[in-house]
Amino acid sequence: MEEFAVRPDPADPRLTERVAGIDQAGQPIETAVPVERPLTLFLNGREIVTMMTVGDYPDCLAVGYLLNQNMLRPDDRITAIEVDEEAEAVIVRTERQTDFEGKLKKKTLTSGCAQGTVFGDVMEKFDTIALDPEAVIHTSWLYALSKKINTTPSLYLEAGAIHGCVLCERDRPLIYMEDVGRHNAIDKIAGYMHLKAISPAGKLFYTTGRLTSEMVIKTVQMGIPILVSRSGFTAWGVALARRANLTLIGRAKGKRFIALAGAERLRFDADPAAADDEPRRVQRKASLDEDAA
Amino acid sequence: MEEFAVRPDPADPRLTERVAGIDQAGQPIETAVPVERPLTLFLNGREIVTMMTVGDYPDCLAVGYLLNQNMLRPDDRITAIEVDEEAEAVIVRTERQTDFEGKLKKKTLTSGCAQGTVFGDVMEKFDTIALDPEAVIHTSWLYALSKKINTTPSLYLEAGAIHGCVLCERDRPLIYMEDVGRHNAIDKIAGYMHLKAISPAGKLFYTTGRLTSEMVIKTVQMGIPILVSRSGFTAWGVALARRANLTLIGRAKGKRFIALAGAERLRFDADPAAADDEPRRVQRKASLDEDAA
User: Fold this and answer.
1) How many CB pairs lie under 8 A apart between chains A and B?
2) How far is B137 from chain A (nearest CA, A)?
3) What is the pLDDT at residue B73?
4) Can you tell me the distance from the alpha carbon of A270 to that of A77, in angstroms, rounded to the nearest whole number?
5) For the whole model, what pTM was predicted?
6) Which residue has the higher pLDDT, A285 or B278?
7) Cα diameter, chain B
């Protein structure tokens, strides 16, 4: 798969808006901000949820959400995905009726951004997933990935206030999705992988968001053995990563990072002192839950 | 009300955990991370939702959540709030039965962090709220608030990966709450204000999180006319702030900020060039959805 097979499109006029205001000197300014719009998801005619999203890849978002909630099993055959832009709706149709009704009864809203629901049986499935024990991550890949991801044009660099998630292989970012909710970004990648039949084998996952229980659960559900973030950890995120044997690397900025689970997959082939500090422009918007997430 | 009448307690052993790992040089390290635990909310014996929270002020979180969801009206008399730590549950009892059942049918999961549900009638109420047109914010207050909030001891400075919200008056931070979900932090303040009968008049609200539609809706629901954030904006957040005549100030770091709604409440009494840059230590954890939120 080629590098950045999917990448953000900051030039898409549907994804950002220009708005006028004033700055600290009282001078008029104009700035770009990301769009946030509702999208209502239906499964076989039944309304599931309304999500707030930047709006790109609604088909991937719908399928990824249903997969990560265990509402769609990997062997369910999808017969249609209909996006109705006017009605702000997406409808996923499957060959057989799914057994999700019972799942709607028991839900947990999570501490992550957006759409954070964990259904009762997600944890049951979690404990049955075996992540690849042979997978490794070289520190040279980690540094190369951070640099490529943070300097490639994105809605984040254009407008701030948006999360990014990236499916990677070795030192190559493959699928880079952004969304106002970080769980949308990860769900969009899960949906894309399912629709294009991309295997999680040999992959690692990069996110700009915090490593909460929900992000760990979704990554494990997707079968990806390594999760990397610029941001920090919660205690339950760390505990779940250890339980699933997921490698959990956080606070990865410039040359620095720490690993709090699965550190045996790390291969130290780069000299941290030689790693670049981050260029100032990748931080220019001061715009994302920067100092608290 | 005194400055920091409520402030974070980073020394509370229930709120952070120390975990071991390794750093970029392969050296063993130990670091603090915030706790994230489930709390199930019941209203008069009916289960409403399970929230992921750091766990302090469960009574305030419960009441604030119910108020901000319009499940509890300001004139509903609360007869008991029972916190069951073992069962990880909080039960709110009211004198009369509430009419929330219908509201459970129509919900929207939002793009913000955590617990983001907006019920159908929230928007109906939104349009009836009149925010104080006389309220003002001096830029000198803004600079003083940012400095006080960002340098006071907090779970954020101790462990990262946590959001803060602060109810303020002029240049004084009054109630500073933190949580792994920023909506929990704002709900805890709403609950505290209700339980202690603190008026929103003359107050402003500071948050570390992004200015999404949900944060704007909650601030307006609380009757607070000015909302300030270190982070960025979404287009719908800006549009709703303009509709409600809320003053919306974002990307407020060091001397810089921009206002995208309600700028007429600003009074420019400080020289931005004289404002401090932020001390490096307030950013030290690199730990919160720093560059994407």
Assistant:
1) 339
2) 12
3) 86
4) 44
5) 0.91
6) B278
7) 61
